[in-house]
Specification:
Low-confidence stretches: 8-18
Number of domains: 2
Largest sheet: 7 strands, mixed
Oligomer: single chain
Order of helices and strands: HHEEEEEEEEEEHHEEEEHEHEEEEEEEEE
Mean pLDDT: 85
Length: 388
């Protein structure tokens, strides 16, 4: 049975697994139901928070690439104007800079400014014209014997945050209905099951489509919304600009250049029906998809490619939500975490009815959110209607 990076265990939900709350109970009973993301998240390292806003630090090495602003003739020997950018600051005195288009090697003879480089051109070769918008990159440093140390350059991690959102789903049964003998069975138990399914469906949808926001934040009763995957990810492949089409070759390039450019070599794709059809058609020709049934309770299909493995699941709710039949959300699970307010993970609160009500009222309540440890490792593909 295939292992999935970032998830506890090596197979199905074990018979000794004891759910700690109703969220885990639901995903144990219906892992392939309407909340497969929550089913997989219930097996990851969920973490409590003692503040409704939780933060994490994201850090990555800079690309240290620069872009020329205005062509430079081969006769010009010192000055190159560049577009403003943070990576420019890494071009300190002694830095080797290479023109990716011509291969010309230059050396910075002074620390860069916001938009300017002072360089020694054409190290060990022939001068070339530097085109407008040419891409330059830093390729090490070179210093003469006895030189002083270069100017120090550092970079800081960025801070990302999200909120926990309060989800509530109530159901009510009159005392008369409780006392009625029904052919369909105990009505209170039936409604409890249906309410839990709706509750988990609400959380699942928020984790995909929610928008981070806080209303009335300075009051005693703020209203908070958790940010979902689609509204948080910066890596988006939109095929609407290409007649809603993508070829197999274009999809391969998307896997190489975007999906597996960062993070793990095994990622999980939740997709709509049309995207599943595209993958099935491509799989018949080349991929030979392998079914991984029962892995962590969620049925997946493994697509092995040169750059990594896609573990694909046709999300049932993507059938119900307009526009998601031609979309896919690819998740790198080691960089995703379920966060819940301490003591307020999914639970059933009984007897919420008024004191004089001739009925019983119960509700499921969860205060939770989604934490993306990194952003670029997740990808959203949308508007992939046709396999060209």
């Amino acid at each position: 049975m295939a292992a999935i990076q970032g998830l506890r265990g090596t197979g199905q939900f074990d018979t000794d697994f004891r759910p700690k709350n109703y969220r885990e109970l639901f995903t144990l009973l219906e892992p392939n139901g309407n909340a497969p993301l929550n089913a997989l998240l219930s097996m990851t390292s969920s973490e409590g928070t003692d503040d409704p806003e939780f933060k994490n630090f994201r850090d990555e090495l800079p690309e240290r690439a620069l872009q020329v602003n205005g062509a430079v003739s081969s006769a010009s020997t010192t000055s190159v104007t560049i577009d403003a950018g943070n990576d420019n600051l890494f071009a300190v005195k002694g830095t080797i800079i290479v023109n990716s288009e011509t291969g010309e090697v230059m050396r910075a003879t002074a620390d860069s400014t916001a938009t300017g480089l002072t360089v020694e051109r054409n190290i060990g070769g022939t001068s070339h014209t530097i085109a407008d918008d040419a891409k330059l990159f830093i390729a090490g440093t070179a210093y003469e014997e006895g030189a002083n140390s270069p100017t120090g350059v550092s970079f800081d991690a960025s801070v990302a945050s999200n909120f926990t959102q309060i989800f509530r789903t109530s159901f009510t049964v009159t005392e008369t209905l409780k006392a009625t003998n029904l052919r369909t069975g105990e009505k209170e138990d039936e409604l409890a099951t249906k309410a839990l399914k709706l509750h988990m469906q609400d959380i699942e949808r928020a984790m995909f489509f929610g928008k981070k926001h806080e209303a009335n934040g300075s009051t005693s009763q703020p209203l908070r919304y958790t940010g979902g995957l689609i509204n948080t990810m910066s890596s988006v492949i939109d095929r609407s600009t290409a007649s809603n089409s993508m070829t197999e070759d274009q999809f391969d390039r998307a896997l190489i250049e975007d999906v597996f450019a960062f993070g793990s070599k095994q990622q999980i794709m939740f997709c709509g029906a049309k995207v599943a059809g595209h993958l099935q058609k491509m799989g018949k020709d080349r991929w030979q998809p392998t079914a991984v049934e029962g892995a962590y309770g969620v049925n997946l299909t493994q697509y092995t490619t040169f750059v990594g493995d896609l573990m694909v699941h046709l999300h049932p709710q993507f059938r119900q939500i307009p526009g998601m039949d031609n979309a896919a959300v690819i998740i790198d699970f080691p960089y995703l975490k379920y966060r819940y307010m301490e003591g307020r993970d999914t639970q059933l609160l009984r007897d919420r009815q008024a004191a004089d009500a001739d009925a019983v009222k119960h509700e499921y309540l969860s205060e939770c959110g989604l934490e993306l440890m990194q952003d670029k490792v997740h990808t959203y593909i949308k508007n992939w209607t046709n396999l060209a």
